[in-house]
Model the fold of this input.
Amino acid sequence: MKWIYSVSLAVTLAMQPAFADVQPAQHPLTPQARDAFVSDLLKKMTLDEKIGQLRLITVGPENTKEVIRDMIQQQQVGAIFNTVTRQDIRAMQDQAMQLSRLKIPLFFAYDVIHGQRTAFPIPLGLAASWDLDALADVGRISAYEAADDGLNMTWAPMVDVTREPRWGRVSEGFGEDTYLTAEMGRTLVESMQGKSAADRHSVMTSVKHYAAYGAVEGGRDYNTVDMSPQRLLQDYLPPYKAALDAGSGGVMVSLNSLNGVPATADSWLLKDILRDDWKFKGITISDHGAIKELIKHGVASDPEDAVRLALKSGVNMSMNDEYYSKYLPGLVKRGEVSEQEIDDATRHVLNVKYDMGLFNDPYSHLGAKESDPQDTNAESRLHRAEARDVARKSMVLLKNRLETLPLKKSGTIALVGPLADSQNDIIGSWSAAAVSGQAVTLLQGMKNATDGKATILYAKGANVTDNKGIQDFLNLYENAVNKDTRSAQQMLDEAVAAAKQADVVIAAVGEARGMAHEASSRSDITIPPSQVKLLDALKATGKPLVIVLMNGRPLALVKEQQQADAILETWFSGTEGGNAIADVLFGDYNPSGKLPMSFPRSVGQIPIYYNHLNTGRPYNFEKPNKYTSHYYDAANGPLFPFGYGLSYTSFKVSPVTLSADTMPRDGTVNASVTVTNTGKRDGATVVQMYLRDQVASISRPVKELKGFKRIMLKAGESQTVTFPIDVDALKFWNARLQQVAEPGKFSVMIGLDSADTEEAEFTYL
Ligand code: BGC
Done:
């Protein structure tokens, strides 16, 4: 898919003030011109200046503005991250252009993960939209806002496939599926980089975290990854490759070890696969402090050893440690690292700067000083309408007993819960330069939607957690959870009193945003006890109970699923979250999101994922047998399967028809179903196509997603959806690590979630 942006966005962009006149390009943005320019520049550089280009630093207590100024003057730094205003960025670029000998521009990077000034839903929520056009809008707007702040690069997309809800960073990625993650990653790269990363409103992407960070053992952040090469090649690497094929200029290297080798020291990953097999020409960047960490990993004996190992393994730029600058000169002097190796790494850095257009105009993302916004946080800089639209699409209706939802905009509604009026939580973790004060909470959103037509009684009801240890941990680095001054009982009583007066109770519960973040792994993925108590008390009132979940990972919701009349999964839905949730609750938008991850019943089931192998003893719940693969104290399946999500209308899927029952070598087969909206409301849904290789040289998953299509159907309307299946969809990595499609029978399964599908079969000749 090429990057597409919506009409509304095109209008928004057209309305923005013009920036500095674009000078005719002195340096054409072609690989030939770039290579000649960079070769020439390298000849003029001293060894120290080259090493300086490899250093990426952040402004902070250890690197004050004064310290950085000196470093820039002496060309000891190649790029800056975490600075987000044009004024600050301009000051540093001025220093590079005015004070340094060779006037090599800096580039400026930031974690623009789900928006820059406008927070969109967290990536896990974006994935739940299964809407690539919506994602392209998110990418264009995020790039627009980032470039408008003077940034050139983003540390995104994160395409770490994960089957680990315990892992806090599950919130930053697109879930458990390889195909969905690859599509999402590719779309974000295409939309953020636009036609060229050098364009005024594009930024270069840096796909992360290469590789397999999402498979950390036990879901504990930074932990070990150990997996078979087949699984790595088949399930975990394709999304990084898709992002690179889409042109991502950067790759961030992961912090974990993979089969014993830390990624930062893994020349197989960074050279053999990335450069030789995938022909990647951009830049590799270590993650924060990762070069130093090679010592703790136990693969480097001292700092020099770590630096030698990282550089030789293919890490071009070091993030936030002084190791390259400090130790590379000595290593070169002693002949342990060659100047050629330094040149190679420096060339990659200069190449991306060239591709960003910085040698044509170092201020290309800054424009004229007079154009700097008076107020960086001005309302006019936000894209609220687009954020609301995407947020609505990300929400997943998990349960809706007797059509509890949508609600009427009348009567009395009790809105209860620690997340109901929290601006800080709703924007989610990694919210870049988004300001929580500009976020719309659910309380505000419901007030906006009802506009006085219904009475809304609000009560907080509980703290997100009353566990002091957890509160202290989460508040260590940021104000992640606030504790109410009232006692738990007082809060609970107030909530119950509100519920008793109401026709329906909405409980906004789940996690604080800091609970699903980097370094925020959980061993228990239930709703915290303080909120469980609140739900119990609300349930006891006998009023219809709607649970609105806000969380950054799949949660175990067995009890809540029984208690609630309706459950709406809203993730952390961003700046316009409250309005978007209200749109869904009141039926102004019919929910269409689908889960990008299985929701387990308990932590004991993890890892749980839909595309598992069959085993030699698959469990059949209709004919239970002790000696088959199952738990005797719990069901095998998830509480909510991958791809699942309800609507206010109902859909029916016809049997699958195939264009042929054989597929010739390198041919295609088309698989079609007709989907009918059998309910009374218009609505969208996502048609999902899965394949199974029935007999192969290695055991293959019971199903794998190979195509999806989001469709909109008016009440009563039908649409035929066709998925072309080609040989690439049949391929897998065999025991000899060759990517092959083997002849034989394939099942095609099409449905509106991964568990409930229509099935047909064809033979690959
Ligand atoms: C994270 C990266 C992030 C970097 C810069 C690291 O701690 O692992 O994902 O891009 O910090 O903020």
